[in-house]
Amino acid sequence: MFLLVDGLRETSAGAAFCAQRFHTFLLPRLSSRQDEPEDFELIDMVNQAIEDLDKSLLESNARYAGCGLALLLVLGQRVLVANVGNIRAVMCTPPKAEKPSKDMWNIRPLVGGGRSGRPLAEVQRLERLRRLKEYAPLDFDGKVGETLSAASATDAELQAISDPQKRAMQRVSRAAHQFAALGFSATEAMTATPASVQKAVEDYEKLVGTSDGSPIYTTALGRVKAAGKAVEAMLSLDSFGTHQLAELCYAMDEEGGILPQKRAATILGVEPGCGEAVAHAQVETRYRAVLSNLAGASPEGADRAWGIMGEVVDSAARPVAQLWAPAPENRGVSAARAMGLRDLKRPRKLIGLEVVSEVIHVEDNSTVCLMLLTEGMREVSEAQIAEAVTLHKGKPKAACLRIGHSVLESRKKETSSSDQVNAVGALAAYIDVNDDIVTAVNPEKKLKTADGRCMPSAKPPSRIRIAHILVKCQPASGPAPSDPQARRPAPADRTQADAEAQLLKLMEVLLDVHRKGPEAGAQKRLSAKFAELAREHSDCKSATSGSLSDLGWISQGQSQQGKEFDAAAFEIPVGGLSDIIVTQRGVHILHRLA
């Protein structure tokens, strides 16, 4: 199981919550099955796990944080890809050729569907229907650069628009409720009459004039007319209840969609942290009859009132504790679907949880690479992905690092140090389905994958001869562990990312050397160059050991380099290079000599 989470609102709180708990929601469902689930059953289990995880996040202290989430679940020759949010998924396959080829791998975006999955196009259609129902901003369609917010546009945002007609249409487009769509201030809404509502509609029609042919003109005008009709009906039925609803709506606007506990308690007339029983009792006393009466004129208005009241009760009743909340300027989110983000799901479900899903059946004797990329890597082209996957066949970390560093390098050229940039992240998994691995007679035979890469034998050897290049780095937290085999300590400012970047460059030098010249001398050239680079760059004492700068012969579990090291070392074929790996000692690349 591979999971990639992409934090929103400049915090990792939601991403960390989901990353640490997702397996506890999915694995029990999988293990409870006595038989192998069908594709549609597998998708249903994943959807339920995502839904339950989201419910848990929405009740946690990180409820206002959020993240995108993408899953790769490998079951035999099936791979389920599920995606909530703006994480991109692609599948890479080697060129169709009988012999190993240097041609670029083929790239196919994974947008869901298939026999049992849900395609992106269907999800986007459902999103639009949901936003239409939930009084969402009219100028949001999920495109890059567009943002969703729970609150109406502020006066400052509107005054920044010089054209009165555009300002009026923006006010309506960004209105979070019917009173804001009519252009009322909080004071005007709480003293409104049917006559003032009619005048507000007429003033808007006069201001925007005849249609300019844009879709936003028609939808905004329709929203104003519908708001006028609904508010006028509510005022005619119960003006006091309508004014109470307006007060609740503007309270949410003034607080940016997230009610502080103190204000919620003031609305109910209770002490902060009063508990649900006390809070609900106050709702029954103060609001039940008044707000229920509005349903006769506007069911939508009554539903809105009870939705807001639910958030008021939750905020006022919960124990007095500091919840994480985004700064007011960071509450807009450029996503149509995500985990968490309670203020964008309650009382209005502006952000959805629709899952784009697909089950891929990997054919016999074939290789695929599946890659997930965060929103911060949206500028990465398919050609760049193909280049990285082709160059670093079978090395998912190296392929991801190449793509990530290319993005960061391009940003350094385009942005100043003060500009805010999105974090980048990628995850890749290579999947080989090769019958030869199972049926091999000679355990020491080098096996070939569909794209020509060497695979380890079916039975791992008892011992191997290995060399490595170690680049030490400072730990993320705490003091660096003791390392008596270190040739030199890590520089004080060298991070793991710095070490990985350095090793990626060395790996690409080695790959270039290996691929040049006649195939017969490839391993010898590679071993010689590896030793040369180890002597120059490695922080391990083994760099000065003999002509090949190696660790000598090691047995499984006895290398004293750590389990991550051993696991990688015994998977490498003779003459091969490992992916970039991380251990307690630092960051490594390995080369198997024998």
Automatic annotation (TrEMBL):
Pfam families from the UniProt entry: Rotamase
Annotated segments matching region Disordered: 475-496
Domain PpiC: from-to ranges: 461-594
Record keyword NAD present: no
The reaction(s) this protein catalyses: [protein]-peptidylproline (omega=180) = [protein]-peptidylproline (omega=0)
Superkingdom to which the source organism belongs: Eukaryota
A single MF term (Gene Ontology): peptidyl-prolyl cis-trans isomerase activity
This protein's UniProt keywords: Isomerase, Rotamase
Gene3D superfamilies in alphabetical order: 3.10.50.40, PPM-type phosphatase domain
Enzyme superclass (EC): isomerase
Enzyme Commission number(s) of this protein: 5.2.1.8
GO CC field: cytosol; nucleus
PANTHER family: PEPTIDYL-PROLYL CIS-TRANS ISOMERASE, PEPTIDYL-PROLYL CIS-TRANS ISOMERASE-RELATED
Protein name (database record): peptidylprolyl isomerase
Species of origin: Effrenium voratum
